[in-house]
Amino acid sequence: MVSSPRDESQPMSLRERKKRLAQATIEEAALQLFQQKGYERTSIQDIADVVMMSPRTFFRYFASKEDVLLEPMRAIQSEGLRFLQHAAPTESPHAALRATFEYLARLHQQQRASFLTLYHVVMQVPSLASIYVYALMKTEPSLCEALYSRLKAATNRQEIRFLVAIYMAALRVALEEWLEQEAQGDLVSLLRGYLDDFSSLSHHA
User: Fold this and answer.
1) Which entry of 68, 74, 145, 148 is 20 to 30 Å from 45 by CA?
2) 66-204: CATH architecture
């Protein structure tokens, strides 16, 4: 599991380490149960039983089954936002976004097994598919604001909003293709292909 971004100069407290370990344990158990039993047939009690805790304790870490299911994606999106804010290149909006979204693709590859399981679960329940897409797109406003703040002198908000939407769409399509292939290919290369296609089209427009 991908941990949430934090200030690396500050050591993580024992309490925080225990919390993150518990969250990761719940996520892993829940994803396995969702795949084995089906999302709708898995109860919070089932998840709590596997990790040997009460449902009440479960709710200290997650608000719902949906919250557990989407946590891996939310964690990666948070890492992408941190990268854009602090590590992405600043020579142009395209350079910053390309580096950020390739970073996101690499993070997905590092969590290949979790995201393949997540994809299989989501595809079993139509209502989850729309929630998944919405959760992916929900990060766009934060990415827009981070990019605008980082490159304020050279950009405008309308341009940034449009570019972030394009890069997010490219990531979403690349992810779908990668997961449909059982995550066997190189996600970064797939994403680069879509971004290169967009770049070529924009230059010929």
Assistant:
1) 74
2) Orthogonal Bundle (1.10)
